[in-house]
Structures are given as C-alpha cells and as structure tokens.
Amino acid sequence: MLQGEKDRSNNSNQQMIKIPSSAFGALRRELIDMLGFRRSKGFLLRYGWNCGLTDCRQMMELNWEDKRDLLLAGPKMHTENGHVDVEVQILDVNFEEGTLHFEGDWLHSKEAIEHIKLFGYSEESVCHTLVGYASGYLSELLEKQVIVRETSCMAMGDEKCHWICKTVEEWDGDPEVENERHFYEADHIHTELEETYEKLRLERDSLSKTYDVHQKLFKEIVFETGVQPIVDVLYETVKTPVLIESHLCEVRAFAGISEQEAREYAGELKNWLAIQQRKKGKKKHEIHDTTLLELSPGHKRIITPIYFRKKIHGYCSFFTHEHKVTEVDKMVLGQAALACSLHLSNELTRFNTEQNIRGNFLEDILNKRITMLEIANYAHYIGFELKAPYFMVVIQRKFEGKSIKEEIEFNDEFMNELYKYFQSKQLTCLLGKKSGNDVIILFSDSVLSNSHMDKERFSSQLLHFCSKKYPNLSFKMGVSSSHLSIEDAPQLYDESMASLKVTSSQQNLVFFESLGVVGMLLQTKNPQTLENYAYRVLGKLGEEDKGKSMELLITLYYYLENGASIHQTACAMNLSVNGLRYRLGKINELLQVDLNKGYNKNEIYVALQCLMVLGELKLPS
C-alpha cells in the first residue's frame, strides 16, 4: 500500500498545481484551434507522458513493500486528483523480465466530457493526457517503453473508456501502436516547429514571388503592352522557359527557348490534344486546370488553360524536369493565365470599339450619308489612307452553328482573325458586315502596291488564309473592279456582290472584270432590261423553269461550266449519268438551240450569268 503520501507532497522538489477541468478544456480548445486535432493530440500525449514520468520518479523515492503497489499508485493518483475513476481488470507484470499486461476501464473521464462539450462526439478516442500519463508512468517504472492504447472512449459514444497497457515488444508490431509511437519522441515538437517554420518560410517566399509576379503582370495589363511582355515577366521570375499558345496550338509568345523549339513543342501539344479527342471515357485526358504533361522525352511541361468567356482560348506553360507541380507553380501560372484572359478582354473591347467605328464609317459611305469632307475627317481619325484607286471584297462563308449565340460568337471571332491578318500584313482597310454572314472590306489599291502585291494575288492569299484557318468551312469571294473615288463605294459593293453570285464550288473566287459582257450590262443599272434579255435568250426553257425549282437551268449552267462534259457535270451535281442525260434531253427539247455551236453556248452562258447576278438563279450550296 501507499505510505507517507503527505511526506511526498511536502518533500517534493516540484510544487503541485491543480486546475479546473473547464480551464483544461479551454486549453484543449485553443490547442486544437491553433494546431489541429493531430498535432494537438501529440502535444497532449507528451504533456501527459511528462506528468506521469515526473510522478513516477517522485513515488519511487518513497518506501514500498511491494513494487506492484508502486505501479497501482499511478491509477490511484489519477483518481485522487479528479481526472478519472479507475477500475483495474487485469494486472500481469514481471518486473525482472520487463513484461506487462495491464488492462482496465476509466469511468467519468473529465477529458472526454470536456471534449464532448466543446466539439461533440468524435470518431477517435480523445483521452490523450490520460493515455500519455499512463505510458510515461509505466515506462519509467519498467525502464522500457510502454504504450497505452485506448480501445473505447466515452467521446466516441461508448459507456466508458477502456485501456490496455503493454511494452512495445509485447504489442508485437501492431500497426496502430507503431503509428502512435512517433508522438512520444522527445524532439517531436522541435521537429514539427522546424518543419512548420520551413513551410512558413517557403509559403512566405512563394507569396512574395507570386505578389511580385502579380504586380509586374498588372503593370503590363494596365499599359496594354501585349502577350510577349507577360511571358518575359514569367521567364524573369521563374527562370524557366515559358510558352503561350492559342487553343489551336499556335505559338503566341515564348521566352527561354528558340522559335523553332516553340513551334516543335506546340506541334507536339497539338498532336497530343488530337489523340485525346479521339479517345473516350476515362482514357480521355483533358486540360481543365494546372497539370503536368510529359509529351515526349525532353518535353515535360506544367500547363494551365487560359479561359475567356468560359471557353479555353489558349494555354500557358512552364517547361520543367520536375515530377510534380508545386503550389508556387500553380499560383504563378494562375496569375499568368488570368493576365492573358484580361489581355484578351482588353483586346476584344478595343477591337469591337474600333470595328464599330470603322463599320459605321463604311456603312455611312455605302449609304451616302456623309460628304467627301466628312469622309476625309473620319478617315484621318481612324488612320485609313485615302489614296486612289479603291476596290472592295465580299467574303461569304457557310457556318452551321447550333444556336444563334454560337453563330454570333463565330462572326466576332472571324472578324477578329481578319483584323489580325490585315495587321500582320500592315494593311489598313475598312471592315464591316452586310446581309447576314457577308463580310465587306474596302481597300486602297495603293496600299497593296506598297506591299508589292496586286489585287489578284492579294485576294487569292486572303481566300487561302480563310480556308486554312477554318478548314471545315467553305468560303466564296467576290472582288470588284478598281475605282478612283471612294464615293463610288456603293458601285464597288454592287460589283463585288455580282461577282459573288456567280461563284461556284469549282470557282470560289470571282473578279468583276472576269464577268465580261455581264459586267458591262450591269453598268446600265437597268435590271429589268437585263432580265428580259436573259429570258428571251433562254426561250421556252426559261418560261418552263421560271417560278419552279430552276432545276433545268441549274443543270444547264453546270453543263456549260464543265465544258459540256457529261461525266464532269454528273460528278459536280452528284447525279447519275442516266439522270443527267434525261435532263439534258428535256433541255434540248425546250431550248431548241444547237448547243454544239460556240456562239449559242456563249450567249446562253451569259444569259444564265445575268440571272445569277440578278438573284433569279441560285446555285445550291
């Protein structure tokens, strides 16, 4: 039994302090709020361990008849100090061999009660100071490490707390015990503080670097210097190659690599995206946020999408040899992607504003709403050089959008791409829209001369650019003749529209000069006379087909357009040869003209072109 307890209290080298359970609960709450449940658990276990170890050393200074009584003094002190009521169930100890199996229950644990008051019920046991105390007390007594496990707890909803004490060897590598052991290491708090300090230092440096990038990028956005300065800022900050690409994997800006390398890397990303597009289900990988991609040996990049109006408009990448993405990489790339999005927004706003001005200016010229003096003033204001001669281009494209919204978005994108194309060629023009999807462009012929290009070559290049940029769409282009006065713009528009109407799948670029007689007839500005002429030449065939589907007239046009070749015409119209022969037979029957004679062919072809220019005859798309 315990003897001389009063003497122990009086002769102790350390003064004993008692605190209310509610105060201990408040301390527990502060620890958990600051350190979290896991770290506060380690703190409380080590606190209990030191209390148990100190009490054991003081108790060992007293005289004991039986060492088992010294062991049981620990639970008794817990009870007398008001921490918990202890019921011992098993005590099997051999001090000489250093073995122990000590088991029992804790009733009315103040630690569990306070935890429930502050945090509610827990999924894990919470009597950490009790467990730590018992582990420290018994380890000091047996002179080897003893680990106490709490297998049930009031805070988990159990009726009472159950505990088991064994030496580390007797736990025999129990994984839960091994997981608990590191909490008792003497330098654990110091190590955690060092780790925490290092994390805080890294986070401070990361925040400092991110803030520095943010400030520099903000400056570039405010001064609207473009995408390349954004890339230069990133390269200067992260000291690693940077690349910005469009959503079509076109190189927009780069730093730290050569232009050739940038194009090769962009090509590899384009191939990878194409492969992913063909995949389905979980095998398909898409870039929705910052991720690490290894596209080929030596080509590993951290990439993030650039969003604009909820769609991906491009990608920003760092090239790296690392195997993971750090938080600072995510933050810096996020800032860069946001800067690019803001740049796109500014660019679009500027473009829309400028295009509205230019489009309205062109509309005013076409409708003759302004005088020549006003034209000169507006042209000077927007930087359009009034230098004769002038010509006009009308571009028509077929776009089958799923909705009106998609069509409007595509129109804006197409106009923007044309604007950037003319900028790259250093060409000033007036760009506008007319009658739905038609884009009208007014040029000064002299501007092309400065670029060492003629109208025909430039128009071909422009059509090639459109077809290459949007390979899934079909484009047609009508080009007017050249006039000396910008006030003739309405006539230029009529000419380009007339040219557009006679385009076909075989000839998607038509110049007004190539219309020959039809062009001259249009100069009369008497459409009724032109229509009468056309139907007079076509005779009964025109009368029969007029007001119907114009099937026979369309067939005749394709037949003449393809050099009177039955097989070429059938292929162009997607008809069977027998079906085409039947139609030609009916045409000959109604036309009553010998098509083998060149003069008849030419006159009928001109008549058909007249109907097309007048909008009477429309070829299928």
Keywords:
Alpha-Beta Plaits, Beta-Lactamase, single chain, 621 residues, Muramoyl-pentapeptide Carboxypeptidase, domain 2, five-stranded mixed β-sheet, disordered N terminus, alpha+beta, five-stranded antiparallel β-sheet
Model description:
The chain is 56% helix and 16% strand. With 621 residues, the protein is α+β, with helices and mostly antiparallel strands. It has four domains: 182 residues, Muramoyl-pentapeptide Carboxypeptidase, domain 2 (2-Layer Sandwich), CATH 3.30.1380; 139 residues, GAF domain (Beta-Lactamase, 2-Layer Sandwich); 142 residues, Alpha-Beta Plaits (2-Layer Sandwich); 87 residues, Arc Repressor Mutant, subunit A (Orthogonal Bundle). The strands form three sheets. Strands 6-5-9-8-7 form a five-stranded antiparallel β-sheet, with helices on both faces. Strands 11-12-10-13-14 form a five-stranded mixed β-sheet. The termini are far apart. The relative contact order is 0.05. The N terminus is likely disordered.
